[in-house]
Amino acid sequence: MAANGGADAEKRVRLSRDRLLRGAIAVADTAGIGSLTMRSLAQELGVKPMSLYHHVTNKEEILDGIIDLVFSEIEPPAADADWRSAMRHRAISARGVLGRHPWAIPLMESRANPGPATLRYHDSVIGTLRRAGFSIGMAAHAFSLFDSYVYGFALQEASLPFDTATAPDVAESIMAQFPTGGYPYLAELTTEHVLQPGYDYGDEFEFGLDVILDSLERLLTMADAPRIDGSRSGR
Amino acid sequence: MAANGGADAEKRVRLSRDRLLRGAIAVADTAGIGSLTMRSLAQELGVKPMSLYHHVTNKEEILDGIIDLVFSEIEPPAADADWRSAMRHRAISARGVLGRHPWAIPLMESRANPGPATLRYHDSVIGTLRRAGFSIGMAAHAFSLFDSYVYGFALQEASLPFDTATAPDVAESIMAQFPTGGYPYLAELTTEHVLQPGYDYGDEFEFGLDVILDSLERLLTMADAPRIDGSRSGR
DNA sequence: ACCTGAACACCGTTCAAGT
DNA sequence: ACCTGAACACCGTTCAAGT
Description:
By secondary structure, chain A is mainly alpha-helical. Chain A has helices spanning 17-31, 38-44, 59-72, 83-100, 104-110, 116-132, 136-159, 168-177, 184-194, 204-224. Chains A and B meet through helix 5, helix 6, helix 7, helix 9 and helix 10 of A and helix 5, helix 6, helix 7, helix 9 and helix 10 of B. Chain A binds a DNA duplex through loops.
């Protein structure tokens, strides 16, 4: 470990804002966001708690910073991709990122200071829609629907009491708590579908995603060739 | 908050688990979930911190309890409602509830112990779908899509840095931080649409909801009268 | 310039006691 | 039975100092 003074990646590296934020993500990923304290982070970085305040003004700034780093992990689509595959690519990447950092999802609620990567991501989504021909109003609709679904799915996936792919026994023990007959539809869905060998809740993601993309595509072509009665969507 | 009972709702009422949980919701609603501590809750209830432990084993149990109380606020649809208006009614009610208790949304992620109201809500949604004729697999798809959208929209609405309806000036100050030209599509959408007088982000909710309900209706009728080529949804 | 020890006002929770 | 004071091991953060 402490062989020479060279490039050991241990605690000899100078502290920096970037190293601090990446350390914070590492702590949150492995021990949960609840375990991320100034003291635990300092220990992770081989430094004393007070040193952190030299690179960051307070813990809030750390939370803002790691959320933006999470957004930066979302892959941008290929430059020449059509709007639909661009949206699809982004959604799948975003879900993967939020799956790797589930603690980030609830955090997004309280962060009022979006960072550059967050703004870039949103700008890029809206840009894809606008260039595809969505009007401003339709782009706002589509953006809201798309992002709500992606975040909501990630939130739900993270809150699943059972990881169906790896621990069906846990699901069964939860099922067993259902007062018999109290939740018949939930019981049916769980035992006859969710607990079946091949089922993986994650697979639901692409189904919903394609339903939404189908709908957006329909709206787009409807706008191109409006009907005589001028009506838009249902209701 | 303190004025629901007929007699003095002050500190003279005996402490109970229900009064404790409702006090916790009152604190979270007015001061934020971050301000909900055993000490602040005790003060709200006119009691000493240690008294709380007589009705609840720890703070985790309080969080589980208030999440379930939030779910219990979601209005069940009329018994004779058709599936579509039942789903619509529930979604709108759920969004209203989560809007009143925005702190509950991130909390749902970490709660692995769903309470009776939570289970009843989910059972009721799945039941509506099953009775409408959705197969188990389709009900799982529809359930995932529907719930993801509702939670995701609420999450996004809660995380909006600007409350467009009441404080457009805040939005403008945030806009001003955008490095000029750095986020052109975001800037366009914000200045030319979101900041316009009549705009309320909340109105996006019903648009996306109806898109989703339209899609589900299409899936349901397609399942009733399958096409010759057997294809399902796009791609 | 960067790092740190001691200290302060907070947490959740245990334990032994009060009525 | 229900409530509580004192205490413990934690927090985030300030401040004055070290190199």
